[in-house]
Design a protein that fits this description.
Blueprint (H helix, E strand, L loop, with lengths): L1 E5 L5 E6 L16 E2 L7 E7 L5 E6 L3 E6 L4 E6 L3 E4 L5 E5 L7 E13 L5
Antiparallel strand pairs: 1-2, 3-8, 4-5, 4-10, 5-6, 6-7, 8-9, 9-10
């Protein structure tokens, strides 16, 4: 399949033929102690242990959206947050919905993948 990459100016660059693409996120990447206003255009997929032997998908940008697959339906939970207290592989994802409130624990982080970091440099 041809690989086409669009640059920040919207110009398509035809790279060639690709058999597969892997996303690279540095293993030390965390979102610890990050305020919502610091996120910019950053979008991350965070995979959480669902305590049933499966994985929940969590998308983090200016909100935290958790997708929990059930037997016949997918539950979608959307949280506004003021600060991400902790988000690192092996730790529990914790967010504060409002300043000064207790942290909400959303699950054990298995993997963090940066999906879009266009304004991050």
């Amino acid at each position: 399949m041809p690989l086409v990459v669009s640059d920040s100016n919207g110009i398509d660059r035809r790279i060639g033929v690709a058999q597969s693409i892997r996303v690279f996120t540095p293993p030390e990447f965390t979102l610890n102690d990050v305020e919502r206003k610091q996120m910019g255009d950053l979008l991350c997929a965070v995979f959480l242990d669902d305590e049933r032997g499966g994985v929940d998908l969590c998308l983090i940008d200016h909100a935290v959206t958790v997708y929990r697959a059930g037997r016949r339906t997918t539950q979608v939970l959307r949280h506004r947050y003021s600060r991400i207290a902790r988000c690192e592989v092996g730790g529990v994802l914790q967010i504060h919905e409002n300043p000064g409130t207790n942290a909400i624990a959303l699950g054990l982080v298995k993997e963090i993948v940066v999906l879009d970091a266009s304004s991050q440099g």
